[in-house]
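hey can u run this one w/ magnesium ion bound, need the structure tokens asap thx
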Amino acid sequence: MTHKSRTSNKRLHVLLIEDEPSDAEIEIAELRHGGFDVTADVVETGDQVRGRLGKNSYDVILADYSLPNFRGMDAVDILREKNLNTPLILVTGALNSETAVECVKQGAVDYVMKDNLARLVLCVRRALEDTRLRQERARAQEQLAHKVEELARSNCDLEQFAYVASHDLQEPLRMVAAYTQLLAERYRGKLDTTADRYIGYAVEGATRMQALLEDLLAFSRIGRNGVTPTPVDSNTAIEEVLRNLAITLKEHNVTITCNPLPTILADRFQVVQLFQNLIGNAIKFRGRQAPSVIISAEQHGEEWLFSIFDNGIGIASEHKEFIFKIFQRLHTRAEYPGNGVGLAICKKIVEHNGGRIWVDSELGRGSNFRFTFPAVLADKAGKKEDYELSAENLVSR
Ligand SMILES: Nc1ncnc2c1ncn2[C@@H]1O[C@H](COP(=O)(O)OP(=O)(O)O)[C@@H](O)[C@H]1O
Ligand SMILES: [Mg+2]
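ok here u go:
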């Protein structure tokens, strides 16, 4: 026969709300028999309950349903008042099942009949386990909330830094750019050729830095000035983009096929920016044939799935995520001009509006840039016929 040593038993500190000393004894004995190392405070009035709960911390409360000067369920209110989560089990002589269910609804974790005390140990074990799990969950949630808050703060600091840096650096840089340009104009040919070359580098560097700062500023502005979203007809946004790009479209003989697009809830300027970056890229990274861009959208449940499909140089699969990072690009500026900010801006705009953006592509086989937007507006506005815009009719618009 094995003998369970007392020290291996689980300690259990109980508040017993009970006016019958012999019942209290039996309950404690039952718990000890079930393997608990019990210490108990026995009380029978509301003041005593309040006093004990104010001073001690209990693992469990066992409460008689009705006492001469107190109702066991009143202890639930006291727990709430004191913001305590101690589990309370009703231990009672007589209780019909409706009352028992009502008590559980009101906050008792369980109930045990005095003529069936064998259940008591099981109930207490379950209550302790539930409490432990609840506490663990609460702790995990608290940690998560803390991390989220920390992340939000550091993100906010970073954005603030990017904004201030790009904004405040513009002014001194304007001076550098203006004066190096002045130097170039006034002294070209008056010093030696090396000096001319150096001045040329300085002008180029300053101009390039201005362009970088402008893009960085544009990037950090998204989401800063809490813009109020309004219904934006994507069809007219595309028309605006095509007007902005008219010269490039004509120059490269681009064909744009635009299927009917939905109205979305967003900031109009950002929608134009988004499409313009994607269509601009489709033309910039063109292949040997004349560029063709197909724009479409279809509804998938709660969201619109947009597609900007080109016949350009394509993207190798290992770079599909990399290109959405700020300042990251796959070519030198000599091959293709640019700062590598466009797709980072697209990603920020889409994600700020609750969507996702990615690219399906293979090297040499064109690219299909896709992004989602929440479908919050019921109607599919602007159901126009498909229309084809060639460089010709664009410019004549
Ligand atoms: N339609 C496209 N076809 C092929 N490559 C693309 C396309 N769009 C973007 N890319 C690749 O992704 C990189 C990042 O794009 P982006 O952020 O717009 O910067 P940028 O246009 O200044 O290079 C580009 O440099 C290019 O390598
Ligand atoms: Mg670009």
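The first strand starts at residue 10 and ends at 17. anyway lmk if its weird
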